[in-house]
């Protein structure tokens, strides 16, 4: 695992202590996104070996064997319109279901270490003036498969029992009045612009309303609408309830 960690940090542009400039961990800047002219320094994250194939980076834990990633969050909204499923504390908390204190950069490191592959399939190619076209990048089936994840939630109920749900269970479409379909979320990995890793800058982790800066996006119908998503009534625990978010590879069907 030590060699894999070194390889991932190098490929992400995260430096050793002897260096001084490199981009944050992110996939290569997409061909349809602006290229950075300058590169900002970034602190190398510390990967801790917890034993038995388990590791941590910041407040995130991950396992090599089943490629699962877990981190703490809390319920942020139980009513009102949503554009995001998960944001970092410094992000757009006024329109996000869950809030977390973790670093999006650390989460991206864990994802890359576990061989998740970012896919750009949801984002139209931009023309020379950075205006979206009607064309989308060609993404291989192997990359699509490696980009699809399940996002699961667990929490302690008021009676002391353990609650479990899919992230999709907690998000409802206001027209259909049903939770969004249970389908994999897509890891797109955010991007670097002008030397800044956008997920870290914006705090965007999981977007329902499609957002290129987020690490994950919901790929289903009406993902381009920002006025149809609300928390699922009667399914959510109270605001500020601690939640463990777990990311796993999507099961093949």
Description:
This protein is α+β, with helices and mostly antiparallel strands and 253 residues long. The protein has one domain (2-249). The chain contains four helices and 17 strands. The protein has an eight-stranded mixed barrel with strand order 4-6-5-14-15-11-7-17. A three-stranded antiparallel β-sheet has the order 10-9-16, with no helix packed on it. Strands 12-13 form a two-stranded antiparallel ribbon.
Instruction: Tell me roughly what share of residues is in helical segments.
Output: 10-25%
Sheet with the most strands: spatial strand order: 4-6-5-14-15-11-7-17
Distance between the termini: 30 Å
Radius of gyration: 18 Å
Shape assignment: globular
| Poorly predicted sequence stretches spanning 5 or more consecutive residues | 15-40
Tell me about the largest β-sheet: 8 strands, mixed, barrel
Strand content: 25-35%
Provide the number of structural domains.
Answer: 1
What is the residue-averaged pLDDT?
86
Q: What structural category characterises the helix and strand content?
A: alpha+beta
Write the topology of this structure:
Blueprint: H1 2-11, E1 47-51, E2 54-57, E3 60-63, E4 69-75, E5 84-88, E6 96-100, H2 104-113, H3 141-147, E7 148-156, E8 162-166, E9 171-173, E10 178-179, E11 185-187, E12 192-193, E13 196-197, H4 198-202, E14 204-207, E15 216-217, E16 229-231, E17 242-249
Parallel strand pairs: 5-6, 14-15
Antiparallel strand pairs: 1-2, 2-3, 3-4, 4-6, 4-17, 5-14, 7-8, 7-11, 7-17, 9-10, 9-16, 11-15, 12-13
């Amino acid at each position: 695992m030590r060699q894999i960690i070194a390889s991932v940090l190098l490929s992400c542009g995260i430096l050793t202590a002897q260096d001084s400039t490199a981009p944050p961990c992110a996939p290569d800047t997409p061909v349809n996104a602006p290229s950075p002219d300058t590169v900002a320094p970034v602190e190398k994250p510390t990967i801790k070996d917890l034993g038995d194939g388990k590791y941590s980076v910041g407040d995130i834990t991950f396992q090599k064997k089943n490629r699962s990633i877990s981190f703490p969050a809390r319920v942020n909204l139980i009513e009102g319109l949503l554009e995001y499923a998960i944001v970092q504390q410094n992000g757009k908390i006024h329109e996000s279901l869950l809030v977390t204190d973790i670093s999006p950069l650390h989460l991206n490191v864990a994802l890359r270490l576990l061989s998740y592959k970012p896919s750009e399939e949801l984002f139209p190619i931009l023309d020379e003036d950075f205006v979206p076209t009607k064309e989308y990048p060609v993404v291989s089936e192997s990359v699509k498969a490696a980009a699809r994840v399940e996002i699961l939630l667990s929490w302690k109920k008021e009676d002391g029992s353990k609650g479990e749900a899919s992230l999709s269970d907690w998000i409802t479409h206001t027209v259909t009045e049903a939770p969004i379909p249970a389908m994999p979320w897509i890891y797109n990995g955010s991007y670097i612009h002008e030397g800044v890793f956008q997920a870290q800058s914006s705090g965007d982790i999981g977007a329902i309303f499609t957002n290129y800066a987020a690490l994950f996006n919901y790929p289903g119908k009406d993902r381009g609408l920002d006025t149809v998503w609300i928390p699922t009534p009667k399914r959510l625990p109270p605001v500020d309830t601690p939640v463990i978010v777990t990311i796993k590879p999507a099961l093949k069907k």
